[in-house]
Automatic annotation (TrEMBL), chain A:
<comment type="similarity">
    <text>Belongs to the short-chain dehydrogenases/reductases (SDR) family.</text>
</comment>
<keyword id="KW-0520">NAD</keyword>
<dbReference type="InterPro" id="IPR020904">
    <property type="entry name" value="Sc_DH/Rdtase_CS"/>
</dbReference>
<dbReference type="GO" id="GO:0016491">
    <property type="term" value="F:oxidoreductase activity"/>
</dbReference>
<feature type="domain" description="Ketoreductase">
    <location>
        <begin position="7"/>
        <end position="143"/>
    </location>
</feature>
<dbReference type="InterPro" id="IPR036291">
    <property type="entry name" value="NAD(P)-bd_dom_sf"/>
</dbReference>
<protein>
    <submittedName>
        <fullName>3-alpha-hydroxysteroid dehydrogenase</fullName>
    </submittedName>
</protein>
<keyword id="KW-0560">Oxidoreductase</keyword>
<dbReference type="InterPro" id="IPR002347">
    <property type="entry name" value="SDR_fam"/>
</dbReference>
UniProtKB/TrEMBL annotation, chain B:
<dbReference type="Pfam" id="PF13561">
    <property type="entry name" value="adh_short_C2"/>
</dbReference>
<protein>
    <submittedName>
        <fullName>Short-chain dehydrogenase</fullName>
    </submittedName>
</protein>
<dbReference type="GO" id="GO:0016491">
    <property type="term" value="F:oxidoreductase activity"/>
</dbReference>
<dbReference type="InterPro" id="IPR020904">
    <property type="entry name" value="Sc_DH/Rdtase_CS"/>
</dbReference>
<dbReference type="InterPro" id="IPR036291">
    <property type="entry name" value="NAD(P)-bd_dom_sf"/>
</dbReference>
<keyword id="KW-0560">Oxidoreductase</keyword>
<comment type="similarity">
    <text>Belongs to the short-chain dehydrogenases/reductases (SDR) family.</text>
</comment>
<dbReference type="InterPro" id="IPR002347">
    <property type="entry name" value="SDR_fam"/>
</dbReference>
Length: 252, 262
């Protein structure tokens, strides 16, 4: 169990959901995980539970100096940076008619700008380490549209394409840094919890979402984490700029 | 003038130059009353000019009110205004540049769709129904990277997906408003002025020509024709689509070179 032996992975949104599941897997596979999140209580609790292989650091992904501090804390504690998972994100329901400019900006600042700043902050440290792997979480809603997810679709479309930019830039510069996007279907995490109890017609929100997926169920955070693990590890050394879909067949 | 679009009213943002100006001319030739909404007027521009900044919500409110008062309706919205934002990489781009490019290219299109729907909802035969076509100009940079800065490619990725969200929303609301994205390849417009200054027009153009499988950049009117088709009822079953007009760039494997050796 040492697929990430010697690798230090910084995880934005590491306190919850997909980020937290990835942190557990990173530590279990011999790597070190830095949980960077704005939720201090949950982040610290998980870092404590994971022990010496983990560290919590406070992070607001939409703030550039906050990223500088998180990367510095990572390098100071674990001696380098080899992997970055941009998992911090917010899921917001709004349509083109009811989304305000302020709300559009808030969602895009966290999901879009936050991912850009993460890549930008990590690259110098990864260069120092001789290379690395960046994984950005987009969504099936970065591949397909949804009427109820206006600002979210825009932000995930931005992540899908900025990932390709980072991949090409790093390849051209010969940095030995890869960058890929992951596109989950609906995953059972706190992000979608509020939707599961709502009813849609004569179905519960959970049923409605489950039946969207050809596999007939929601995904689990661990299932996405396994795809991310592959991308963080050297097993994926020829993959860069690609879209990795983990959606139970939803976009098939 | 009578024509396929006579009686219809179109707004073209960024219509004073390049693709927008060519689209405005074709829409007008098809009989539409065209409102060109741009920061600056063109010399001898087509249609009625309204000074407009796509990044400012107040400017959108004023524009829509003005068009509904003067032209009385809105049928076609071409969200075309855009900036390249220079050649920044993930490493060299600062937050200010990122925000400036998103503000014009992504937020500007978001607001354009939002206010277009408000206008089009009053446009149907009895003003209680709605009808219209929204055309958003993305780019090949919204389909694959390597043709622009990180801020530009991210903003065009945003346009690609927000167009789908708008298309589905309008369909669900039974608005009869379609929304599509156009993804042009290289088009010979003033957006390249900076690059021409940097490497000379002939050399720069030759470099971009070569990236297209068909061996050349487009003239603005070639994109204008796609815009016209999407704006008209000829494309009545097309919504949420990505229409590439790119001389084949995204069809095969693209040989990418950095725009500027950094
Ligand atoms: N759950 C799903 O169905 C699903 C589907 C597709 C994509 N995604 C994406 O996966 C990623 C992880 O989502 P999740 O389901 O694990 O959600 P989650 O809500 O469980 O976790 C998100 C974490 O991000 C943190 N966060 C939010 N804003 C932040 C900020 N400004 N700075 C720092 N941290 C911040 C939160 O505190 C939280 O710990 C998100 O980008 C989300 O959009 C989720
Ligand atoms: N030329 C190309 O190769 C190419 C390729 C793909 C996509 N595009 C896109 O096509 C669209 C039109 O580009 P173009 O090549 O015709 O460029 P252009 O520079 O010739 O014209 C752009 C116009 O937009 C206007 N504009 C800029 N910011 C504005 C604002 N805030 N509010 C209102 N108007 C504003 C400018 O004044 C200008 O008249 C852009 O969205 C661009 O990204 C161009």
């Amino acid at each position: 169990m040492s697929r990430l032996e010697g690798k230090v992975v910084l995880i934005s949104g590491g306190a919850s959901g997909i980020g937290a599941a990835t942190a557990r897997l990173v530590v279990r596979q011999g790597g070190q995980a830095v949980l960077a999140d704005r939720d201090e209580a949950k982040g610290r609790a998980l870092a404590d539970e994971l022990g010496d292989g983990a560290l919590f650091t406070a992070l607001d992904v939409a703030d550039e100096t906050s990223w500088t501090k998180a990367v510095a804390a990572t390098v100071e504690t674990f001696g380098g940076l080899h992997g970055l998972l941009n998992a911090a994100g917010v899921g917001v329901r709004n349509s083109i008619e009811d989304c305000s400019l302020a709300e559009f900006r808030r969602v895009n600042d966290i999901n879009g700008l936050g991912t850009f700043l993460g890549c930008k902050a990590a690259i110098p440290a990864m260069k120092q380490a001789g290379g690395g792997s960046i994984v950005n979480i987009s969504s099936v809603l970065g591949l397909r549209g949804a009427s109820y997810a206006m600002a979210y679709c825009a932000s995930k479309g931005a992540v899908r394409l900025l990932t390709k930019h980072v991949a090409l830039h790093c390849a051209q510069m010969k940095y030995n840094i890869r960058c890929n996007s992951v596109h989950p279907g609906y995953i059972d995490t706190p992000m979608i919890a509020p939707r599961l109890d709502q009813s849609i017609g004569n179905m519960s929100g959970r049923q409605w979402l489950e039946e969207l997926h050809p596999l007939g169920r929601l995904g689990r955070a661990e299932e996405v984490a396994h795809m991310i693990l592959f991308l963080l590890s050297d097993e994926s050394s020829f993959s860069t700029g690609s879209e990795f879909v983990c959606d139970g067949g939803l976009t098939a | 003038m009578s024509g396929e679009l006579s009686g219809q009213v179109a707004i073209v943002t960024g219509g004073a130059s390049g693709i927008g100006a060519a689209s405005a001319a074709l829409l007008a030739a098809a009989g539409a009353a065209v409102v060109v909404a741009d920061l600056n007027a063109a010399k001898d521009g087509i249609g009625r000019f309204v000074r407009h900044d796509v990044t400012a919500e107040e400017s959108w409110q004023a524009l829509l009110a003005d068009v509904l008062e003067r032209e009385g309706r809105l049928d076609i919205m071409i969200n075309n205004a855009g900036i390249s934002g220079g050649a920044g990489s993930v490493e060299s781009t600062d937050v200010e540049t990122w925000q400036r490019v998103q503000a014009v290219n992504a937020e500007g299109v978001f607001l354009g769709c939002k206010y277009a729907i408000q206008g089009m909802k009053r446009t149907g035969p009895d003003k209680s129904t709605s009808k219209g076509s929204i055309v958003n100009i993305s780019s090949v940079a919204g389909l694959q990277a390597g043709a622009g800065s990180i801020a530009y490619t991210a903003s065009k990725g945003a346009v690609r997906l927000l167009s789908k969200s708008v298309a589905l929303y309008c369909a669900e609301q039974k608005y009869d408003i379609r929304c599509n994205a156009v993804h042009p390849g290289g088009v010979d417009t003033p957006i390249f002025d900076l690059l021409w200054q940097f490497m000379g027009r002939d050399q720069g153009k030759a470099m971009i020509d070569k990236r297209h499988p068909i061996g050349r950049m487009a003239e603005p009117g070639e994109i204008g024709e796609v815009v016209l088709w999407l704006a008209s009822d000829r494309s009545s079953f097309v919504t949420g689509a990505e229409i590439a007009a790119d001389g084949g760039i995204t069809t095969g494997l693209m040989r990418r070179q950095p725009f500027v050796a950094s």
